[in-house]
Write a structure and sequence with these properties.
The complex is a heterodimer of chains A (625) and B (454).
Chain A: E1 4-9, H1 13-24, E2 29-33, E3 47-49, H2 53-62, H3 67-74, E4 75-81, E5 91-96, H4 98-110, E6 115-119, E7 122-128, E8 131-137, E9 141-150, E10 159-162, E11 165-168, H5 180-186, E12 192-198, E13 201-203, E14 213-215, E15 241-245, H6 248-256, H7 279-285, E16 293-298, E17 305-309, H8 317-324, E18 335-337, E19 340-346, E20 364-366, H9 376-395, H10 408-419, H11 443-453, H12 459-481, E21 483-484, H13 486-495, E22 505-506, H14 507-511, H15 518-522, H16 531-538, H17 540-551, H18 553-566, H19 588-597, H20 602-606, H21 613-624
Parallel strand pairs in A: 1-2, 1-9, 2-6, 9-20
Antiparallel strand pairs in A: 3-5, 4-5, 7-8, 8-9, 10-11, 10-19, 12-19, 13-17, 13-18, 14-15, 15-16, 16-17, 21-22
Helix pairs in contact in A: 1-9, 2-9, 2-11, 3-4, 6-8, 11-12, 12-16, 12-17
Chain B: E1 9-12, E2 21-27, H1 31-37, E3 39-41, E4 52-60, E5 63-73, E6 84-90, H2 93-105, E7 109-110, H3 115-122, H4 128-138, H5 143-153, H6 156-180, H7 191-220, E8 222-228, H8 234-245, E9 248-252, E10 260-266, E11 269-275, E12 281-282, E13 285-286, H9 288-300, E14 303-309, H10 320-327, E15 332-337, E16 352-354, H11 363-374, H12 390-411, H13 416-434, H14 439-449
Parallel strand pairs in B: 1-7, 8-11, 8-14, 14-15, 15-16
Antiparallel strand pairs in B: 1-2, 2-6, 3-4, 4-5, 5-6, 9-10, 10-11, 12-13
Classes of the chains: A alpha+beta (625), B alpha/beta (454).
Chain lengths: 625, 454
Amino acid sequence: MKKFDIIVVGGGHAGIEAANAGAKLGCSVALVTMEKDALGRMSCNPAIGGTAKGHLVREVDALGGAMGLIADRTGIQFRMLNKSKGPAVWSPRCQSDRKLYSEEAVRFISSLSQIEIIEDSVNEVVAENGIIKGVIGTKNGLIEGKTVILSSGTFLNAIMHTGLTSTKGGRYGEKPATGITESLEALGFESGRLKTGTPPRLNKNTINFDILEEQGGDENPQPFSHFTNRAEFPYLPQIGCHITYTNAEVHKILEKGFEHSPLFTGVIKGVGPRYCPSIEDKIVRFNDKERHQLFLEPEGLDSDLIYLNGFSSSLPADIQLEAIHKIKGLEEVEMVRSGYAVEYDFFPPHQVDLTLETKLIKGLYFAGQINGTSGYEEAAAQGIVAGINAGCKVTGKPELVLKRSEAYIGVLIDDLVNKSTDEPYRMFTSRAEHRLLLRQDNADRRLFTYSHSRRMISEDDYKRMLSREELINNSVNLFSKLKISAKVINPYLQEKGSALIDSNETVSKLCKRPEFNLNDILFFINKEEHQNAIDLLKDDIAFEQVEIQLKYEGYIKRQYDTVEKLERYEDLNIPLTLNYLTLKGFSTEGREKLQRVKPRTIGQASRISGVTPSDISILLVYLKN
Amino acid sequence: MNYQNEDTIAAAATPGGVGALSIIRISGKDTFPIVYSIFEGKTDITQAHSHTIHYGNIIDGEDIVDDVLLLLFRSPNSYTGEDVIEISTHGNPLITTKILKLLFKSGIRPAEAGEFTKRAFLNNRMDLSQAEAVVDVISSNTDASLRGARSQLTGAVSQKVQQLRDDLVNASSLIELELDFAEEDVEFIQAEELSRRLMAISAEIEKMLSSYSVGKIIKEGINTVIVGMPNVGKSSLLNCILKESRAIVSSIPGTTRDIIKEELSINGIYYKFYDTAGIRISGDEIEVEGMNRALRIIDEADLILLLFDKTNPHSFNLPEKLNNLLKNKKHIIKIVNKSDIPGKIEQNIKDYLFISALKDEGIDELVAKMEEMMLNSSNYTEKSLLVTNERHYNCLLNAKEHLVSADCSLKQGFTGEFISVDLRNASISLSEIIGEVTSDDVLNNIFSKFCIGK
């Protein structure tokens, strides 16, 4: 077999993005997966996006990724969350048709000629003198690669638990991946164990939907992708979800099963996520709460399966069913598959650099759950960064490291590397200190120069972006200067109960009033005199950018001030060769963590957990000398 | 693991001059062997335990320099975290100099200013705010200022700021809960309740801020100026107060301003008295030079003792310019002198304090009033938390401004993510006093208090 530029191990959401990025950069890519049809399989809930996760999808898309496009084509319910708040926390989310999503992923990957899909199970990673050589597959033997991206999800030495019965496997009906952990440990990597869970799947035809509250999608659904043709969107019929609740009786039945719970009896050693607790965890930790909300999510248009979101459990199957039968609307339900927990190996992410290349083996990259994250979107974000960086390494382009002030992807990787993690890491908007700047609406504006220089977007798209940027900037400048006379607008202000103006006022000032939007104000300008305004009114996307920029100008400026304040140390580089073990004065933990992470800048060093402000002062003293 | 400097350092720890005792402090890894090499006593100090005292002689070859006590502190249980010895000698500067020379000859180098404290900081023996306080303790002039610095040294300021930051993290968590978990079945905080919480934190910060003015005067002294027309008894009053205090700190007559400045401590409070006796004020005619000086001094004054003469009604007619100047001052005590002489002004005029500098009457009341005006207005007690450090003051001030701004956004109906910008900045300002707060703190708080997750 030929030697590949990039070998991607695992065809989940990280693997797809990695392979796609490598191919776009002109590299030959081997995508090794146990089963071709499992590409892009949604192993947990049939949904993409959500708070902060939706932002990640938009960013992956702006970088030229696949997730947004696939989700747009296979979504059966689109909603913009947090619409009652300001635009920075609006988050797109969709329910997906699980089967169609996977099929679309296969089609997407198959359309890229540089990608060769290899059906095999990798059981060893091969490196020599700290440089990656390739991987060994059960069927193919050694597959050689200049770079290797491991995106093996929850499959490493995976065990599934339902009650006290455990089965080897990474996902229902699929085998675990063995050997990879052991070969990485032999190369000097440190591994850990995490746990995640999934709820029962129910038969749609046995649910009494009539008595349940329905939650529909947005009336005017918005696509994830910047590149989706809005005229054709949405591609599929849109359907609703339903909401129900647990009750005291349900909780009592579940408690009966605690003595057979792998979680409470200590059978499960891996750490689970606090934000996605199992139903048994919720009952124990919040025992004063009388009921817990559950969502009935359809798995697809043609599917008979319903995903019982909020009821993740590893209790014995009979207990799960007995409890579910006490839930409103589910009295007669048939449980097609019980919930289960899955335990898997991960590699604490301080072992990778901000490019996601491992510090130990050059040319080896980790992406997705192997780094301790959870979620399709977090995985995709890492996949595209690892793919771009592997591709850039092979083709001699500059690496891609996004700052915390530039993208949620930057926040994600910076957190992973500096803070490592001991529970599955999920993105939240509160993790982004520059949240007002990192909006889902401006993902493409923030990232398009990076995508272009890495060949991730086409020349046409780049030019389109440039001219839109120009339109936005010119409009903002125009409206900051262009005044409307009191005589012209005061009657309108009076009619709307808004304070009158004494003299002329700029469009920018007027549109900051909460009771108006930009459109209301532009009604009063003489558009014939301003071609710019005419152009802007024809471009919805640019218009929204200008409006947000003007309306929230003060806050956005303050946020930039914070960026400046927090990032004053981001340009103070630390030599990567610095050996902290020989330097004096650090706290014991600070020294260990600095040596472990090897931060690139003082700014990064200050974010490493366990490194104190005193340690930073000392580090600054050393750098000065 | 300790920050062990290569160098061993030494310096006199007590001021120069003749006294009962003088102490030399040595710190660093060669402390014990080098001191041992110039010490002759019953015990082998290189083998002795930490925190023990040893009697013996410091010797220079055959000669005995002085009989001394050695106080031993072994790393890490010492001020600097390193091996430390303090040599307690008789208080003769010649002896101190001689011993230091002996030490420097043996490979120890003179300590730079503040180097002991710097090493203590580098060895994590104290945090930044504590290290700053050490400097304050050393330069404290009075009991009260020492207390202020001490309370900072024991971390009282840090503790209070920590508590405020916890409150802030709690408030932020409630905002973030609504933003990140909008789909969850949990109750979100109402704007009024949030505003109430933010203002409570802001009020606490305001309290700390107002302690700064007290903290500052306690640390730096109260600039006090006696103002009045000629011959009302300004010098007599000053002399009277000086006599009363029995604790003159120093007397510096004839400074460059030609104004007598007395520094004294009364009841543990540190005053700096400026006597404007040198300034001639006659009728409406004020010397330009004299007026400029008065302007400068009165401008810098924390407290003004405005003196009148009971026997002279003209002394109540102050020149207009002086009156204008006094309008801006917060702390003025109006005093009528010569109360012992029966005269035209009734004793019951409100707001005036009657004294007789000559007969030493009413001075206790005056001193009490001075104290009350400067300290009690801020509810200062011995246990009060005092902010004495300018950097801390500025951080607190920034934090408060951010909180006010957050509340303003809240009242205008802006949603959580806008409020959060200011709360985060307030957090950053507080953390500059004590250390970093991360978004993890907020999330951890949410996970521990609310049932999250589908």
